[in-house]
Amino acid sequence: MKVLKILIAKYQEDREVFDALPSKKPKLSKLKKAQLEYKNKISEKERLKKEREERRKEIEMKKKFSKERRFKRQIHFTQKTKKGQPLMKSRMKILLEDVEKLVSKD
């Protein structure tokens, strides 16, 4: 009975080692390898193209946002009173917003 248990234990150990070994994959023909390589290249190109497009859109949005911000700022700074003096109310409002942004960052 002990011998049988020892043999079963030995068989299970060998089986675990065998299962842990990587199984052999069937070799691919040159045609299949070339097809896989081609698909990988195409998918990589598409991925890079999407990344470039996303980056371009992001940059475009940042430019648009900053252009709008500069335009609004320019409008406020060019306002004048009836006598031609600069309108300080809008200038002070913009300066206050700038100071609040600096304070909120800290």
Automatic annotation (TrEMBL):
Question: Pfam families from the entry?
Answer: rRNA_processing
Question: Per its record, how is this protein called by name?
Answer: rRNA-processing protein FYV7
- Residue ranges of coiled coil: 28-69
**Which keywords does this chain's UniProt record carry?**
Coiled coil
What InterPro entries does the annotation carry? Fyv7/TAP26
Starting at the broadest rank, the lineage of the source organism is:
Eukaryota, Metazoa, Ecdysozoa, Arthropoda, Crustacea
Instruction: Please indicate which superkingdom the organism of origin belongs to.
Output: Eukaryota
